[in-house]
Amino acid sequence: MTPDLWVLLALVGLPFLGAAAVPLVYRILGERTAYFAALVALACLGLVGLLYGTEGAQSVDWVPALGIELRFYVDGLALLIATLASGVGVCILTYSGGYMHGEPGQPKYYATLLAFMGSMLGVALAADLITLFLFWELTSLTSFLLIGHYTTESSSQYAARKSMLITVAGGLFMLVGFVLLHAVSADALGSATWALAGEGSMLENAGAMREALESEGLFVVVLALLGIGAAAKSAQVPLHIWLPNAMEAPTPVSAFLHSATMVKAGVYLVGRMRPLFLPADAHPGSLELWTLGFAALGLLTMTVTAILAVAATDIKELLAYSTASHLGLIIAGFGFAGHLGAETGAFHILNHALFKATLFLVAGIVAHEAGTRKISELGGLREDLPITAGIAAIASLGMAGVPPFNGFYSKEFLFHAAWETGAASGGLYYLIPVVAVFGSVFTFLYSIRFLMLFFGEKPDELGHVHSPPVAMLAPPALLAALAAVVGIGGITGTFDVPLGPLEEFVGSVMHAVEPAGAEETSFHYYLPTTVTPWAIMSALTIAFGAALYPQYGRLHDGIRSLLRGPVRANWWYDTATEELNPTSTAVRDRVQNGLLRTYATWVAAAFAVLTFAGYVGASVDVPVPQEPATYLPLALTAVVLVASVTVFGDLSLRVATTVAGVLSVLALGIFAWAIFGLGLTPAELATQPPVVFVLALAAVAGIAVSRAPSHIAGVLTLSILGFMVAIFYILRDAPDLALTQLVVETLVLVIFLLVLDKLPAFYGGWDRGRMARDGVLSLAVGAVVTTTVLVTTAASPNEESVIARGLAEASYPEAGGNNIVNVILVDFRAFDTMGEIAVVSMAALSIVTLIALRERGETR
Amino acid sequence: MTEFVLALVLGLLFALGTFLVLRRDVVRVVWGVSIISQAANVYLVTMGLLDGSVPVLEGHGEGAGAVTDPLVQALVLTAIVIGFGTTAFALVLTYRVYEEHGTIDLLELGGETDGN
Amino acid sequence: MSYGDDTTVIARTVARITLPLVLVVAISLLFQGHNLPGGGFIAGVLTAAAFALVYIVFGMEYVQETIFGDEYEPDGSVAGPAVVDRYRTLFGVGLAVAAGTGLGAMAFGKPFLTHTDEVVKPSTEYVAWIPGADFIFGTLFKFHWATAFLFDIGVYFVVVGGLLAILAVVGGE
Domain total for chain B? Predict the structure, then answer.
């Protein structure tokens, strides 16, 4: 049964609508907005409930021209993530009602939190790569706002910026991967598609996609790009550094972000892409490229961040590192081939969400009621918070992987998969199960350390700790109860009375992350009843952990003493950002110094360099005329130019006359040579000189403008240039242009004279060095323009495809006009003209505003 | 042929325009922009692909096959009028800058006062 | 601008004679634009140039009091010469006319700014008995109209209004 499109759209749209309504609702309800938001989340949970039992894709066109759709796909994995996002969302929002009491910026908080949840639902359900990317980046954006909730605190700003920088940068890598997938899909499916799942999608044709990726040599590239995106989002080593800082957010946000949203997006992506990259015949123990990449990444993260968690001094920091560690576990699970890997990943997503959300909420209660989050200052809390202690026990034993609590079963699957992989390949690959155990020992250690906050001696400085309000206690209790149910399901499962619906659901998730055509296995979990290598691994983990726990303090100090300088990933991040800031400031001061000439220099230089590089890169031939006749106009131009420079120059009258006389003789000589020496007829000469002469005069006028000693002289010579251009238009058969140019030139002269009347006689000089530099730059621009004109005028495209030809032929039959230029302006391209007269109006309005209305605004 | 001269003259005009834009005197900058836009217009007209007579037909649209490129002319026609509007705007802006700041020296306006 | 006081008699006389000529030429350029060189842009700048001539020779005051019949207050009004408001209205109307022709096409179910043209000849059926009716009604009264011309009129108004507003504002300083 395919899902209903309207349910999907309502599910994704509702949180955003709710977010939009929050500011209004806040005016009416005040702090109780939390419960409104929780209701919205509950409605979403209900809508997710409606989707149970359905599977398949629905889509609406979004950008049809690019084949982009708003496509949503429902299967086990999507349902799992959507259930977590909305279900945990209900708990978080309810809890916020108690936690956020009296905090600043609540409307923003609830609106962003709802939008955050909506984005996560979008990520879970999206089945079009662009839609997925959109929601993916929306989670980055909303989490940026949430992490930086306390906008005035510099640590919040730092944390928010860091998470944004890392996750968005990762997202961009992912986008490149998506675009490559899109391109490859053209080979695999016949036509390029953005559809990830559903009919005619990439996942449906995973085999063909794999072949195409391999034949294009893009398999590893795409895998790496998607891997970077997922690693950045899911805080995998070495991109995990943003996650511990994210605890700057209010605790409910941390709980949400760490358990059900944001970080789960990366894990989700890995799960979603798993069937695309794993061959269908992959079985537990087989060593695919996918396994090498993701199992290694996951195990590394799991171990490193578990060690870091032991070094943590703050309870939220401990939990943050543990999140990264468990995400590593899930990624490693998805990394292992076959059903064991799928079981690990699918089941641990659920288990982790349950115990981690609980633990964060517990940490929130502790911080809120005890007033500190320092591990060393806390202890013996069970006396004051007995219920919370019970909740914490269930959750942290689950996190430790102690049977029969929920985390144990998924960790058992991991050990099983790791063992199979190690045993299948033998040799060094036995390191895989060893590393898995090694990392898990640390997981056990910090989990127990967290639990011990509630036991042992209560430090004297810690006064009486108040009981939390019900709104803060109920959500973690509910989540812990669910975690306990999962644990009990394992016990009953051992006696062949499994928790049917749960197993079926996790089975469907598992099915979603298995390649099509993989061996069908149903999901069961239970306590080990026989001695197996993986059961021994679990036992070893707990035994080592228990043995090492008394040394926790020394371990803690030892690891901390090692974390110095370049060993820390944070060192690299901080050094890089600290170095970049002054650099960018320095660059800005050079580029943006408020001087027009600086900007103009950059633009002109960039134009010259880029265009020239383009010509060199494309190895364009510059057509230089060969026949001697072409040099005649050239020679004439040169003569006129030199004459003009002399006349307008600073030479004395006598010298100028002499030079002019010599040049005239030279010009006559050239003419004589052309006629008698080359045999050109005067008629042939006559076709060229007018245009050449006019252009030469225009050039002279241009030179004169540049050398003008006063404003008036410059404007007058500028007019000469304008009139020469008008004559050029006449010679080029453009009567309309010539008419317009003549009249406009007159008007320009009038305006110039009117304004110059008011301006001072400032002519600003520069020293010779700057003049020389500007001169070189100008000559470079001129040279590039000359080249461009030569290259472009020499090109001769197919006459048949010339647009103007069609316009000329259609002019009378279609528009009933003989003046083609006018017909183009008012009929064929009337919309353009419309825009152009709007520009004229705007220029006029701006001038009216600048002058006539100036008194109405502020003046200096 | 003529194109060669045209290329040289356009190059020269662009070079002069650039040179003027880099001056300290705002009025000269306006001239520079004006020269560059004139040169660009000439270049556009030159880029017309068809050769022939004036793009005005006779009678009932006879001779449509033998006209010079009308499209570039239509482009440039509007460019000329808009060029007037923007030149006027630039000038008025200059005038207002002078009124507000008492100078048309870009160096002074940019905050540098030592002339270097 | 008070050039009115120091222009010579020659200038005034020449201006009086040329002004009507320029305006007539401008209007004819506007009307023939569809078939001969001309059109809204050219006619617009020419009309503006004619007004510029009047400003230079007779002064802003003369234009405002004689042509528009407004009171002229060179420095009293903060919003510049009152005539500017008229020009602003003019290019506003021009934009409206141009856009209106586009919207008109939409009323007939065509895309925005679709134009049409038609040759209209009076029927000679009932006047056939008049000698030379074919020539009189078929050729002299033949009228070829195009909606694109309305658009061109809009362009004309915008150009005239815009350029004159600029001239008047700058000249008013």
Answer: 1
Domain residue extents for chain A? 279-549, 806-859
CATH code of the domain containing B13 = 1.10.287.3510
The burial of C46, by beta-carbon neighbours within 10 Å (0-12 exposed, 13-18 middle, 19 or more buried), is given as buried
Question: Would you tell me how many other CB atoms lie within 10 Å of the CB of residue C157?
Answer: 24
For the four alpha carbons of A333, A334, A337 and A341, in that order, the dihedral sign comes to positive
* Residue spans of alpha helices (H) in chain B: 2-21, 26-46, 70-101, 106-109
For residue B60, is it within any domain? no
Q: Which residues pair with A374 in a beta bridge?
A: A314
Q: What is the pLDDT of residues B55-112, one digit of tens each?
A: 777 766 666 667 778 888 888 988 888 888 889 889 888 888 888 888 888 877 776 5
Test B29 with A706 for CB contact under 8 angstroms.
no
For residue B115, pLDDT beyond 50: no
Whether B29 is covered by a domain: the verdict is yes
Cα→Cα distances A95→A249, A362, A470, C73, C115, Å: 15, 11, 9, 71, 65
Q: How far apart are CA A170 and CA A798, in angstroms?
A: 46
Report whether C50 contacts C29 (CB < 8 A).
no
Residues of chain A in contact with residue B91, where contact means CB-CB under 8 angstroms, are 751-752, 755
Q: Rounded to an integer, what distance in angstroms lies between the CA atom of residue A466 and that of residue A214? A: 62
CA A58 – CA A126 distance, rounded (Å): 10
Nearest CA-CA distance, residue A820 and chain C, Å:
8
Residue A830 reports pLDDT greater than 60: yes
Chain B closest CA to C142's CA: distance in Å?
A: 14
Closest partner residue to C41 among B54, B77, B95, by Cβ? Answer: B77
User: CA–CA separation, A737 vs B77, rounded Å?
Assistant: 6
Confidence of residue A660 (pLDDT cuts 50, 70, 90): low
Comparing CA positions, the residue from A399, A398, A404 lying closest to residue A493 is A404
- In chain A, whose CA is at the least distance from the CA of B41? A725
**Weakest-pLDDT range from A157-171, A756-770, A822-836:** A756-770
User: Which B residues 73-92 touch C at CB under 8 Å?
Assistant: 77-78, 80-81, 84-85, 88, 91-92
Task: Report the pLDDT value the prediction gives residue C4, as an integer from 0 to 100.
Answer: 47
Q: What is the DSSP string of A541-610?
A: HHHHHHHHGGGHHHHHHHHHHH--GGGSHHHHHHHHHHHHHHHHHHHHHHH-SS-HHHHHHHHHHHHHHH
- Flag if A793 and B6 touch (Cβ within 8 Å): yes
Cα separation, B74 vs A833, whole angstroms: 9
From A670's Cα to the closest Cα of chain B, the distance in A is 16
Helix axes A406-425, A386-400, angle to 10 degrees: 10
- The shortest C-alpha distance from B32 to chain A (Å) reads 8
pLDDT band at C1; cut points 50, 70, 90: very low
Q: Which domain holds residue B100?
A: 2-51+65-109
Overall size of chain C counted in residues = 173
Among A637, A705, A840, beta carbon nearest to B81: A840
Question: Half-sphere exposure of C110 toward its Cβ, with a 13 Å CA cutoff?
Answer: 11
Residue found under tokens 């005197």 = B25
Q: Closest partner residue to B88 among C35, C45, C166, by Cβ?
A: C166
With beta carbons less than 8 A apart as the criterion, state whether A109 and A103 touch: yes
For residue A652 the two structure tokens come to 């004395």
**Model confidence pLDDT, tens digit, residues A351-390:** 988 888 899 889 888 888 888 888 888 888 888 888 888 9
Could you tell me if residue B59 is inside a domain?
no
Percent of chain A surpassing pLDDT 70: 91
Does A753 reach chain C within 8 Å, measured CB to CB? Answer: no
| B36–chain A Cβ distance below 8 A for any pair | no
* B63 phi and psi angles, rounded to 5 deg: 85, 25
